[in-house]
Design goal:
Helix content: 10-25%
Low-confidence stretches: 19-28
Structural class: alpha/beta
Largest sheet: 6 strands, parallel, barrel
InterPro entries: Septknot
Number of strands: 8
Organism: Candidatus Marithioploca araucensis
Protein name: 7(1) septoil knot domain-containing protein
Pfam families: Septknot
Strand content: 25-35%
Length: about 110
């Protein structure tokens, strides 16, 4: 129902000038064009935690929302993560169900499809 309402209302608001046409509408998985999820850049230094994560992830082999390459330095591109124990850019918790993002570990071509 929500998709139908937003499908009908957003074009009307754009036509009437009710919302700015520069707003980035995220797709169903929540990752926008700047490789961000809920305002968190999906690259950088990452700490794996068991409580109070910024993002809950689930490792999958098929249909990932994000492909992640673990690097040892310079995690500057979408999907490049450097594991750290302190001063992370964001924290993730690995879960088996109800993740925020489904992630696949890769050796090359990290990022969003």
């Amino acid at each position: 129902m929500y998709k139908l309402v937003s499908f009908l209302i957003i074009p009307v608001l754009l036509f009437l000038g009710g919302i700015d046409d520069k707003i980035q509408l995220s797709d169903k998985d929540g990752i926008n064009n700047d490789c961000e999820f809920n305002g968190i850049s999906l690259y950088g230094k990452v700490q794996i935690v068991t409580s109070f994560p910024d993002i809950k992830i689930q490792y999958v082999e098929s249909f990932p929302e994000l492909r992640v390459k673990f690097v040892t330095s310079f995690p500057d591109n979408c999907g490049e993560w450097q594991l750290v124990e302190s001063f992370p850019d964001f924290k993730v918790e690995i879960v088996e169900s109800f993740p925020d993002l489904k992630v696949k570990k890769v050796d090359s071509f990290p990022g969003v499809e």
